[in-house]
Amino acid sequence: MLDLLAPVLATEQGERLTRPAYKQDFREREETIRDGSSWKLERRQHFEEQGSPSRDALRRGDWEEALQLLSDRRDTLAAAAQKEARRGYAFHRVRVVEKPLTPYVQWELHSQRQRAQCGQRIRVIPAERVAASESAHSLPEVVVLGGRTLFQVLYTEAGVANGAIRYTNRDLVTRWENYIKALYAVGEDVISYFDREVAHLDPPTLSAGRE
């Protein structure tokens, strides 16, 4: 268990954004970052991602097609990573994992492993390590951009993206960035985690109405 406690997020201190407004604001702010870094915490074990053909294939139960579609995007990911490197930008992800893996997380770890192979910085941490911060509720989905903006990404109960809350208080942003950095520091590289915990798994079995 990590003794460090996650900072509190008070929704009234942020600004609620619709999904389109969040996506636009995120993109515009991220594109201005030069010689800086961003930090993302991924906690939920199930998402209904939109706009991903591979995710759609998983939803249909076509595991081989889902993996093939991930493989097909490798060149695009590599080009994006090179572009970020040229402007001195580094995006870090921390993925909290519960066992047994949900079908979504099993699929996502294939995706994250590929991203890491293309140069992205991704580490995995078991849910037990963040238990101290989850006595009342699970950690939120959080992204800190360039040390200046924090987005609490919102989802419906089913895991569908539902906009975000934007925070710009510098002290709050810094405390959350430091918390995610602490998780990253004790996390395991996603490639080694994948090789040990995921590579040997059979295709996931989808339950009715949920994967």
Automatic annotation (TrEMBL):
InterPro entries: DUF6879. It holds the Pfam family DUF6879. Residues 35-194 form the DUF6879 domain. It comes from the Bacteria. This is DUF6879 family protein. It comes from Streptomyces milbemycinicus.
